[in-house]
């Protein structure tokens, strides 16, 4: 942070997060305030991350932004909300400190470039990582040190949960202005080292309703959604926090599955109904339950967001066998794609007893690939200048 | 009814009913008492019916029963409950009347044969028609004239709704003994002559969870189910009754779809989750909503029970076009099967504008066939002796 330099360049990365207590429905569309608290697991950036570079310079004449190499309209309301909010916080902080007068840098225009290291085809909500990275990077260039929940949240609600590593809750808050609707860490990155995450990327051509539109329709039409948010989620939050602190996979896994099912139930109760799960998703659900029934305990758990992809939670000692189960049930159709990405997973044999217990006809090509990952840290600052996505001229570097 | 003849033979038919306010969950498993009232439309027996013959004779040494030509165990608890209940009613009625002493016939054993005129492949709940027909036929041979709701209900809850034609409600009742959990007609068969019903039989190999087991699991695990039954269904019952009395298809259709979606939402909220809908079901749902959106009004409505088949409600002036829409979206794979069964439906052209509005890639073979039918009457007594399924010897007639 050197706010009076003519040019300041900062590059940061931020993680994807997967909710185990689901956020579905806003009580304030503009401020992006949720109707219930939610809780998520931050995924490791070795597998999934957004990288963002922000440059401020007195020579820039306008704010500009590039996403995955494409120039996009910086005038988008949510991007504008983030920029407005971070500059407000910067101004506030400085004016609170007499010895440090308002720096010129606050009037500087900013150039921003952001890229994801994972294919959008993966259907993973990239907006959370994207807006968390935007908020975090802007905070560095403008020298903001206060809580960034609101900055990230104004871009995408669940983005505030990507501001921390480990296990993170987004407290819904009660205030109309949303000042108390903030994210905080429930447990750090290394709290539960055995926990593993498998992302099963499902083949699907169907174009889906965006979660923003879906939530609005659910809020307007689903009586089950309101009941869930008010009567059921508060207890779920307390239970889930307890299971995480105790590293109780039985409780964690079962509540994670029930939460996912209940959230998708409110989507089905929406009018017209919303179905993010498809037949492959349902086969994965069946597979998980049969696998757990075979062992007489919850060794694997699924959760689904606004799409058919499954996110599987399990412990390190179960990863290899469950991956073998998935490959047995969804044999790879050679699509030139690497089926297993991320953390290395050793091959494991499947007992005939287990195969019989699964009793499913294989569905070739039902799953495109698997990403194996784990719990990870929050946003990072990259010191290596080579990491910058923008040159000193504030323009995207030619990607060789 | 000639209870002192050495042999009495009676043959009756009973209809299938389709719930528009759903029954899901029992408050008493043994008496089969529901957690909420439900409301159904009785389908016409020209297309779908059960036929049952009952013979009583002093010469029979034991009760016997044949279903669709197969001898089955008469000791089944639900069959026994029906027999016990009908004989209790017969005894009660006679003992209440001095001039008519207990007839011998009450001690006679009964032979019963029952057949459906529709393939079980159709996945239509045949138990409702079956137990309604059993209750109604036994009432004839034993001379019972009182309300048969309990007799039918003890066989299969929704069977009590098949005891009447037209539009029928099953009042949940409040008494622990279930005496006030009875069916009654809301509107007669000819009340809404324009109403039509299309059953879209979906291709599906998946074996499904029986509704009995499904309901039990939902009762044990779904908080949304209890909320729906207590807080939402009572209002739905009143609204639906109003829409039917007013012949308001907009209201009737929309509430029918919302009820179906909400019932299946509680199945998804069950743990492990239950999914009766598959991708074809969901495409039908999408098709219906796009069709209605195109016309800016609810011209067609869907409802689903414990399987992927869709039951479509519409009015006579829309049948031809919507059937054309279905055949356009699910082109027939020649399976040697007649695609369109039941009421005649004339071919109708589809405007390019409508085809564009549907904007769906065809799914060949997704639907096996369509049964076109309408609202129908309640159980009937067949006077023609040739209709009897059992001979005077009380054994199934050789089916030529």
What does this structure look like?
The structure is a homodimer of 400-residue chains. Chain A is an alpha+beta fold. Chain A has 2 domains: 8-189 and 380-387, Ribosomal Protein S5, domain 2; 195-374, 2-Layer Sandwich (Alpha-Beta Plaits). Chain A is built from 9 helices and 17 strands. In chain A, the strands form 4 sheets. In chain A, strands 8-7-9-6-1-17 form a 6-stranded mixed β-sheet. In chain A, strands 13-14-12-16-15 form a 5-stranded mixed β-sheet. Chain A has a 4-stranded antiparallel β-sheet with strand order 2-5-10-11. In chain A, a hairpin with a 2-residue loop joins strand 7 and strand 8. The longest helix of chain A has 24 residues, at 223-246. Chain A binds chain B through residues 223-224, 227-228, 231-232, 254, 257-258, 261-262, 264-266, 268-273, 275, 277-279, 282, 285, 289, and chain B through 223-224, 227-228, 231-232, 254, 257-258, 261-262, 264-266, 268-273, 275, 277-279, 282, 285, 289.
List the helices and strands and how they pair.
The structure is a homodimer of 400-residue chains.
Chain A: E1 7-15, E2 17-21, E3 26-28, E4 33-34, E5 38-42, E6 49-57, E7 64-67, E8 70-72, H1 77-95, E9 109-116, H2 126-142, H3 149-155, E10 167-170, E11 183-187, E12 195-202, H4 211-221, H5 223-246, H6 249-268, H7 279-295, E13 300-304, E14 310-315, H8 316-329, E15 340-342, H9 352-358, E16 367-374, E17 380-382
Parallel strand pairs in A: 7-9, 15-16
Antiparallel strand pairs in A: 1-6, 1-17, 2-5, 3-4, 5-10, 6-9, 7-8, 10-11, 12-14, 12-16, 13-14
Helix pairs in contact in A: 1-2, 1-3, 2-3, 5-6
């Amino acid at each position: 942070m050197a706010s009076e330099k003519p040019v300041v360049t900062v590059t940061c990365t931020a993680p994807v997060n997967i909710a185990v207590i689901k956020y579905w429905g806003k009580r304030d569309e503009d401020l992006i305030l949720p109707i219930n608290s939610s809780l998520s697991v931050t995924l490791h950036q070795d597998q999934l991350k957004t990288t963002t570079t922000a440059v401020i310079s007195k020579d820039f004449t306008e704010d500009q932004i590039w996403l995955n190499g494409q120039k996009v309209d910086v005038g988008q309301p949510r991007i504008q909300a983030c920029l407005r909010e971070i500059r407000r916080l910067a101004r506030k902080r400085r004016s609170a400190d007499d010895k440090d007068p308002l720096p010129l840098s606050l009037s500087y225009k900013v150039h921003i470039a952001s890229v994801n290291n994972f294919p959008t085809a993966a259907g993973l909500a990239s907006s959370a990582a994207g807006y968390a990275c935007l908020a975090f990077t802007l905070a560095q260039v403008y020298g903001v040190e206060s809580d960034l929940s609101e900055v990230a949240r104004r871009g995408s609600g669940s983005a505030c949960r990507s501001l921390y590593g480990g296990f993170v809750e987004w407290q819904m808050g009660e205030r109309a202005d949303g000042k108390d609707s903030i994210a905080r860490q429930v447990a750090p990155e290394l709290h539960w080292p055995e926990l593993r995450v498998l992302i099963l990327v499902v083949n699907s051509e169907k174009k889906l309703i965006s979660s923003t539109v879906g939530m609005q329709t659910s809020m307007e039409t689903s009586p089950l959604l309101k009941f869930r948010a008010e009567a059921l989620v508060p207890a779920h939050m307390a239970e889930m926090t307890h299971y995480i602190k105790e590293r109780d996979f039985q409780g964690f896994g079962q509540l994670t599955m029930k939460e996912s099912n209940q959230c998708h139930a409110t989507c089905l109760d929406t009018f017209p109904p919303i179905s993010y799960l498809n037949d492959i998703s349902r086969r994965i659900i069946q597979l998980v339950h049969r696998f757990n029934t075979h062992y007489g305990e919850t060794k694997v758990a699924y959760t689904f967001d606004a799409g058919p992809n499954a996110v599987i939670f399990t412990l390190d000692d179960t990863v290899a066998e469950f991956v073998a189960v998935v490959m047995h049930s969804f044999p790879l159709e050679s699509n030139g794609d690497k089926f297993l990405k991320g953390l290395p997973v050793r091959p494991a044999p499947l007992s005939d007893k287990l195969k019989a217990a699964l009793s499913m006809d294989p569905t070739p090509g039902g799953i495109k690939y698997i990403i194996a990952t784990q719990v990870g840290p929050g946003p990072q600052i990259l010191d290596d200048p080579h990491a910058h996505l923008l040159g000193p001229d504030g323009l995207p570097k030619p990607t060789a």
